[in-house]
Amino acid sequence: MAKRTTKKKTKAKPKTKRKPISLKLSNQQKLIVGSLLIILGVLLFISFVSFLFTGKEDQSILSEFPSRQVEAKNWANQFGAKLSEWFITKGFGLPSFIFSGLLFLSGVYVTLNLKLSKLRKHWIWGTLIVIWLSIFFGFFTHKYDILGGVIGYEMNHFFQDYIGKIGTALLLAFGLIVYLAIRFKVTGDTFVNLFKNAKKDFKDDFDSNESNTAEDKVVPIDNSLSEEAESIKSAFEIPLDNIEPTISKHSKIEKDNPTELKVEPPKEMEVIIKEPEVEMKIEVTEEEKSETDNLADKLVEDFGQFDPTLELSNFQFPPLDLLKKYDNEGISIDQDELEENKNRIVETLNNYKIGITSISATIGPTVTLYEIVPEAGIRISKIKNLEDDIALSLSALGIRIIAPIPGKGTIGIEVPNKNATIVSMHSAIASKKFQNSAMQLPIALGKTISNETLVVDLAKMPHLLMAGATGQGKSVGLNAVLTSLLYKKHPAEVKFVLVDPKKVELTLFNKIERHYLAKLPDSEDAIITDNTKVINTLNSLCIEMDNRYDLLKNAFCRNIAEYNKKFKERKLNPNDGHQFLPYIVLVVDEFADLIMTAGKEVETPIARLAQLARAIGIHLIIATQRPSVNVITGIIKANFPARIAFRVTSKIDSRTILDGSGADQLIGRGDMLYTQGNDLIRIQCAFVDTPEVERITEFIGSQKAYPDAYLLPEYVGEEGGTNLDIDIADRDKLFKEAAQIIVTAQQGSASLLQRKLKLGYNRAGRLIDQLEAAGIVGGFEGSKARQVLVPDLIALEQLLENESQ
Ligand SMILES: Nc1ncnc2c1ncn2[C@@H]1O[C@H](COP(=O)(O)OP(=O)(O)OP(=O)(O)O)[C@@H](O)[C@H]1O
């Protein structure tokens, strides 16, 4: 057992990811390669320049290369003479100078770490220019010479043989046009404007010349407005003679029909303001990008965006046919049933002197909603009070009256259908709403009363509380939530922490441990069934939360979505600990059990996570059978605005979950009420059976997985140990209270303390150790309770007093 001393939190080491082999150069290597290129460029340039003067002299000795006895006149000796011969004489002629420039430029680009894609462009265009110039020069020469080189001369001949001299000249002109159009975006308009400007300049020059020569000429002031100004002026002028008939027309309408107020602005009064056509130039200056942004852009350009799914790039999402289709899925309308229910509702209300003006029905999968509009003057509370009477007259369970339906102004009466239909998970997952949803964590909950699939975003909830009596559909609901996420999210994007004190409900998910589950580093099973481990896991999640907040803070992001986006755009350096963060969904199947055994030790981290974890992508789903106030405490309720209530047995339970009644009137088998803080929506939960879940987990489990489950940070908790705390100052605050309980009961057991003081196992164990050190209880005796060494409370009081002296 780990040594119990001081509380110690260990931060998770950022996981080291294996780096892909890269051909990228380090900065030092770049400097070396870059400077070599620059030197080569300079050397080539010197050789070429020198060749212009010494080329002829070196001609005779070219054949003797490479001999050490021979000395060339070229400033770069044999090397320069030979290279110049290749490039200029036998190559492209004088345009070859461009190559020396390109080499030099390449060196600069590599050394300064500039965008290589731009350099590539320079090389392509540079080479094209060299070829064009070489042919161009070749056009004018009639022998091999250094103007166009052998290539220029030969290519000219080649073209002239086929298309003649004129054809070659036109081809060169065409090449030039293509270059100008692509490189400098020159268009036909450019030439027209060029021509116009030239004409205007010429005219201006001519006019100013004229006015300068006639200095004494008086310039007349032009009183007449320009054409444009005239049109604006006339637009503002309202023709007065048009207004009178309009007014009289309106007064006539008022006389004829005083209630009808139809205001229509007279057409004649429309004022059209014409904006003078002024050409506005808006200069858009590009915002200076930071250095990291530039680097990120470059990385994205070179390698594309970071893909978190790359490690399991062949992962296949489970196909739809793993889910079962049901025969009785479609809604069948039983006209007789509808008519019968309608008549009974109208009759019952009539018996209580409640008249209605209209009634309509919406048939859902489990219940039908009858919407009634009562006659004027009828009190809504009167109808609400008749809930039981209507249920009696319809002889049906699960009638719920919604008075009034929010936003509709009608009163709703929900009556269960005689034959409920199953909403299959298949239909929910296959629905367009789910398939096309762009939510972060989409969940297909089931179908509403109007038969629409309800898809909600867990990331927006941001936590979910699920309650309902046993056998009403909680486990199915949890499976529906998990299945939805499995159908939509890649293993790299979401991880589950599953807590299953019942030990049977979530075991199927073991198969996807290395794909989707998260666990503590030292634990064997990813699914947590042991309550002591839950405490460690929750605390570990709190550490993960703190770590994530640090990462977000350093990345200047407000939430996980922003952070992951930045990471994908390679704006965050993995060497600084940054990594792609998957969403973490914590599912606790039986929360009541946990609170009963571990009390505050569970409630505190849960409340902390619920309050703070939404922004960093940790979401909680908590299910409980016992929705009593000591399980769903105020602090938990306050942080779980999204709630699902399956059928419960009492109004009080319903109130605990939903802050109102309703859950007690449900009919079970997946019939549920969902709220995200405001309205209650009645939903038939999508049904997913155990064999379906098994098929899905098997399908995923059989695919290539990560080497291990997602590891949560290590948490060294307050383990119960064997070392005794001798120091009185280090004693637990509840020490005295615990001693009194033990002495009163004369039973030295940790579980007694757990029950009486509502403590977790660890703390109770530690208290027992302290009691042992103080001589109040005896030593550890295996499965038997420890012996209590103090006979009564008076003796205890004395013992404690003596101790403190
Ligand atoms: N959405 C649903 N549609 C149809 N039938 C359902 C639905 N949900 C549950 N049922 C039926 O109710 C039974 C009990 O459901 P479930 O096991 O989910 O209950 P539970 O609330 O988890 O119970 P417990 O708390 O005892 O585990 C299921 O076996 C199934 O027959």
TrEMBL record:
<protein>
    <submittedName>
        <fullName>DNA translocase FtsK</fullName>
    </submittedName>
</protein>
<feature type="transmembrane region" description="Helical">
    <location>
        <begin position="124"/>
        <end position="142"/>
    </location>
</feature>
<dbReference type="InterPro" id="IPR025199">
    <property type="entry name" value="FtsK_4TM"/>
</dbReference>
<keyword id="KW-0132">Cell division</keyword>
<dbReference type="InterPro" id="IPR050206">
    <property type="entry name" value="FtsK/SpoIIIE/SftA"/>
</dbReference>
<dbReference type="InterPro" id="IPR036388">
    <property type="entry name" value="WH-like_DNA-bd_sf"/>
</dbReference>
<feature type="transmembrane region" description="Helical">
    <location>
        <begin position="92"/>
        <end position="112"/>
    </location>
</feature>
<keyword id="KW-0547">Nucleotide-binding</keyword>
<dbReference type="InterPro" id="IPR041027">
    <property type="entry name" value="FtsK_alpha"/>
</dbReference>
<dbReference type="Pfam" id="PF09397">
    <property type="entry name" value="FtsK_gamma"/>
</dbReference>
<keyword id="KW-0472">Membrane</keyword>
<feature type="transmembrane region" description="Helical">
    <location>
        <begin position="162"/>
        <end position="182"/>
    </location>
</feature>
<dbReference type="Pfam" id="PF17854">
    <property type="entry name" value="FtsK_alpha"/>
</dbReference>
<feature type="binding site">
    <location>
        <begin position="468"/>
        <end position="475"/>
    </location>
    <ligand>
        <name>ATP</name>
    </ligand>
</feature>
<keyword id="KW-0131">Cell cycle</keyword>
<keyword id="KW-0067">ATP-binding</keyword>
<dbReference type="Pfam" id="PF13491">
    <property type="entry name" value="FtsK_4TM"/>
</dbReference>
<keyword id="KW-0159">Chromosome partition</keyword>
<comment type="similarity">
    <text>Belongs to the FtsK/SpoIIIE/SftA family.</text>
</comment>
<keyword id="KW-0238">DNA-binding</keyword>
<dbReference type="InterPro" id="IPR027417">
    <property type="entry name" value="P-loop_NTPase"/>
</dbReference>
<keyword id="KW-0812">Transmembrane</keyword>
<keyword id="KW-1133">Transmembrane helix</keyword>
<dbReference type="InterPro" id="IPR002543">
    <property type="entry name" value="FtsK_dom"/>
</dbReference>
<keyword id="KW-1003">Cell membrane</keyword>
<feature type="transmembrane region" description="Helical">
    <location>
        <begin position="31"/>
        <end position="53"/>
    </location>
</feature>
<dbReference type="InterPro" id="IPR036390">
    <property type="entry name" value="WH_DNA-bd_sf"/>
</dbReference>
<dbReference type="Pfam" id="PF01580">
    <property type="entry name" value="FtsK_SpoIIIE"/>
</dbReference>
<dbReference type="InterPro" id="IPR018541">
    <property type="entry name" value="Ftsk_gamma"/>
</dbReference>
<feature type="domain" description="FtsK">
    <location>
        <begin position="451"/>
        <end position="655"/>
    </location>
</feature>
